[in-house]
Amino acid sequence: MNRKKAIVILLGIIWFSVAAVFFIGFEPFEKLLFCFFIFIICYRYIYAFILGKSIYVPYSGEEIPATPERYIARLYALIIGIIACSYITFYV
């Protein structure tokens, strides 16, 4: 595993762990699992954008390759991923 991939994965683990401790708090375990599941789904857009991997659009399965022509679409997916991950970490 290369260093950049490890850092991105570690960033996701730290982001969710800190959010679980401080923001989600002492909620039922089922709620924490639900938040973790949604976080993982949304974090894959951030992961794919940073590492330059293809992003797949939900429901249609369309591939957005890491090419300069598709940068705006990938940026849009990144913004959605950041907003969704932030929302789910503040979800109570």
Largest sheet: 2 strands, antiparallel
Global shape: globular
| Unreliable residue stretches | none
Helix/strand order, N-terminal first = HHEEH
Secondary structure: helix percent = over 70%
Query: What would you report as the Rg, rounded to the nearest angstrom?
Result: 14 Å
* Proportion of strand residues: under 5%
Spatial strand sequence of the major β-sheet = 1-2
What's the overall average pLDDT, rounded?
A: 85
Distance between the termini: 35 Å
Q: In total, how many beta strands?
A: 2
Tally of individual helices: 3
Classification by helices and strands: mainly alpha
What does this molecule look like?
This protein is mainly alpha-helical and 92 residues long. It has three helices and two strands, in the order ααββα. It has a two-stranded antiparallel sheet. Strand 1 (55-56) and strand 2 form a beta hairpin. Helix 1 packs antiparallel against helix 2. The longest helix has 23 residues, at 29-51. The model has no long low-confidence stretch (mean pLDDT 85).
